[in-house]
Amino acid sequence: MTTAQDTQRTEESALSNPSAVGLVAVIVAATDGEPRALTVEVDGQASGRSRGLPAGPLVPEHPTLERGLRAWVERQTHQRLGYVEQLYTFGDRDRQGDESQGLHSLSVAYLALVREVRPAGLAEASWRNWYGYLPWEDWREGRPAALTDIEARLLAWAAETTDPKQRRRREDRLALTFGLCGGAWNEERVLERYELLFEAGLIPEAQGQSGAASTTESGATGAPMAFDHRRVLATAIGRLRGKIKYRPVVFELMPPTFTLFQLQRTVEALSGTNLHKQNFRRLVAQQGLVEETDGVTSGATGRPARLVRFRREVLLERPAPGFRLRATRKPA
Question: Torsions phi, psi of 32, nearest 5?
Answer without folding.
Answer: 55, 35
